[in-house]
Write a structure and sequence with these properties.
The complex is a heterodimer of chains A (about 100) and B (about 210). By secondary structure, chain A is mainly alpha-helical. Chain A has helices spanning about 1-15, 30-35, 35-40, 45-60, 65-80, 90-100. Residues about 15-20 of chain A have low confidence and may be disordered. Chain B is mostly helical. Chain B folds into 2 domains: about 10-85, Orthogonal Bundle (Rna Polymerase Sigma Factor, Chain: A), CATH 1.10.1740; about 90-205, Arc Repressor Mutant, subunit A. Chain B is built from 12 helices and no strands. The chains are: A mainly alpha (about 100), B mainly alpha (about 210). Chains A and B meet through α2, α3, α5 and α6 of A and α1, α2, α3, α6 and α8 of B.
Chain lengths: ~100, ~210
């Protein structure tokens, strides 16, 4: 994921050239930290997301925590994502559905 | 994709929309029950119930959330039968989600030797799964629906029948608890050095 992180940082830095509301200076570290999970979860409205994102990705104090939280989330996804239904469960479910009139074709 | 040649449109849409969620429903059922056999039963019953109530599903909304809701309701009804009441859940105090986000938690400890959290990658998958299963139920549900199944806060709020603020509080606290537990495992298995004992040793040396 490192290269995507780097790309995001680069884009965020470029965005800093833009005046007004974006850039790390738009929010304090505390304000950005308060929104870190919502930002990672993609739950902020675009304007606030932009402010929080450019702060977290360009602030020397906040960026390590961002990477830390991201690495944690990736570990969760990796550990659980591959787990699927065991062999035979699909057939068992289909059989029980057929018994109540479900038609497969 | 298989070509559909016949069958009623009701069955066809159920097969095309609901059945592909089998893996996700089984995973969720497994996290709820923490038992493979019970998870299989719960998955089967979820699809049966969903098929019987397919008319009540609102097209355009996420079928996955709808199935999770059914799955959880079936699970809770069974739990209530065997446990009578769910004492743990009623004791949960909600906290301000922003305050929880602000606090660095394990990051404050880990940053000294691994500020980017590389050690998360070294923790074996089974251990991560075990830690998730060890979370109290009210945290576990929120963490699984968000971090594993990628539901939005609003979707989770619907599945769990909770206000969005409560979902955030439980989700963020659940993540923190999970980090604490996994960090402890990482220390005990030697993946990361024990900073706390090093601090104590340094204090002793300075005296």
């Amino acid at each position: 994921m490192t290269w995507t992180d780097d790309l995001r940082r680069l884009l965020a830095r470029l965005r800093r050239g833009r005046p007004a509301e974006s850039g790390p200076e738009a929010l304090t570290c505390q304000e950005a930290a308060e929104r870190i999970f919502e930002w990672l979860d993609g739950e902020l409205d675009p304007e606030l997301a932009d402010q929080v994102g450019s702060h977290l990705e360009t602030c020397a104090r906040c960026y390590p925590r961002l990477r830390f939280e991201r690495a944690f989330r990736e570990a969760l996804t990796r550990a659980t994502k591959e787990q699927g239904a065991p062999d035979g469960l699909e057939e068992r479910v289909l059989q029980s559905l057929r018994n109540t009139g479900f038609s497969e074709n | 994709m298989r070509r559909v040649t016949s069958g009623t449109s009701r069955d066809r849409t159920f097969r095309e929309e609901a059945l592909p969620q089998l893996d996700a429903i089984y995973r969720f059922a497994l996290r709820l029950t923490r038992d493979r056999d019970r998870a299989e039963d719960l998955t089967q019953d979820t699809f049966l119930r969903a098929y019987q109530s397919w008319e009540t599903f609102t097209p355009g909304t996420r079928v996955k959330s709808w199935l999770f809701t059914i799955c959880r309701n079936l699970f809770l009804r069974r739990e209530e039968r065997s446990r009578r009441h769910r004492e743990i859940v009623s004791e949960v105090k909600e906290e301000d989600p922003r305050r929880i986000s602000r606090e660095p938690g394990i990051f404050a400890t880990a940053r000294q030797h691994d500020p980017e959290g590389a050690f998360w990658r070294e923790i074996v998958d089974d251990e991560v799964v075990r830690a998730i299963e060890n979370l109290p139920e009210e945290f576990r549900e929120a963490v699984v629906l968000s971090d594993v199944e990628d539901l939005s806060y609003n979707e989770i709020a619907e599945v769990l029948e909770l206000p969005v603020g409560t979902v955030k509080s439980r989700l963020f606290r659940g993540r923190k608890r999970l980090q604490e537990e996994l960090y402890e495992y990482a220390v005990s298995s030697g993946i990361v050095p024990d900073e706390r004992s090093r601090e104590i040793r340094e204090e002793d040396a300075n005296q």
